[in-house]
Amino acid sequence: MRALIALAVLLIAVPAFADVSGPARVVDGDTLWIGETKIGLYGIDAPELKQTCTTRKGKVQHCGRLSMQHLVRLVRGQDVSCKDKTQNSDGRLMAVCRLGPFNLNEQMVIDGWALADRQDGKNYQRAETFAKARREGIWRSTFDAPWDWRKTNR
Description:
Number of helices: 5
Mean pLDDT: 88
Order of helices and strands: HEEEEEEHEEEHEHEH
Radius of gyration: 17 Å
Helix content: 25-40%
Shape: globular
Number of strands: 11
Strand content: 25-35%
CATH class: Mainly Beta
Structural class: alpha+beta
Largest sheet: 5 strands, mixed, barrel
Strand order of the largest sheet: 1-2-3-8-7
Number of domains: 1
């Protein structure tokens, strides 16, 4: 009996994520809030909000903010549905999100405002190659990959 009670307490204490849908609030280029759930876009890595890029003409741009603004434009006025994939080390839901038939994670990479995550983004490598070849989004500039930028700027 004690074992059953202990198991029940553990199951209640562990957050269980389910699929989430509804209007989204954008945090940055790869993070959303839907209701009370913070969601990371699985398999992609967007520039950090404070991250900058440099154009061919030497102009510094706030590529992290531009990435966030692009995601805002994509989700504005639409319900987003996110399918639970995993949790990150902070316990945050990591999900593949959709706008109707469109994979939002992939669209951010196709549009050049996020990179395929080197560990979890194998499905988005072709999208990244496509964006790079077309010089979309941040590919118009020189930049550090978000994971490299975080190593030196946190």
